[in-house]
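HUMAN: I'm a chemist; might I ask for a sequence paired with its structure tokens?

ASSISTANT:
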Amino acid sequence: MSQMFSQRRAKHALQAIQKFAQESNSAGKSKEFYLMAIKSVPMEIRANGMGQAMAMALSQSERGNQADRKAAFKTIYDHFQGWLCDPHEPDTPFDRGDLMTRLCEAEQELYLHAQTEALAYAAWLKKFANAFLATSAPNPAETTP
């Protein structure tokens, strides 16, 4: 039996976060920056639209001198591009190419479909980022003598 589209979306997000967690294990603060940034993506998409939210992520991946921060924003963009432009996933909005190019060329209906799909994917990225990237603060009850 094949998986439902929503299951494939969740699986893709899980694999993306697990891969990022493994690759950034010793990479400084990349996880913290990713976790902070991914929390604002749904709001950015709702407030400004998908194209502007992804343009912001690309811009942030080039700006400043903090390599971990830049890497986190680049990874976020790559995660969305990997899902929304997956040539092996027939139900995603785009079947290939660069996400920004595809968004700029899309008809309104396809653009809105991509935006709706991006919001659903972002929800999974946020959940899995909280589960796999968040560093747990020490429990005060455990540290008291």
In short: Residues 108-132 form the longest helix (25 residues).
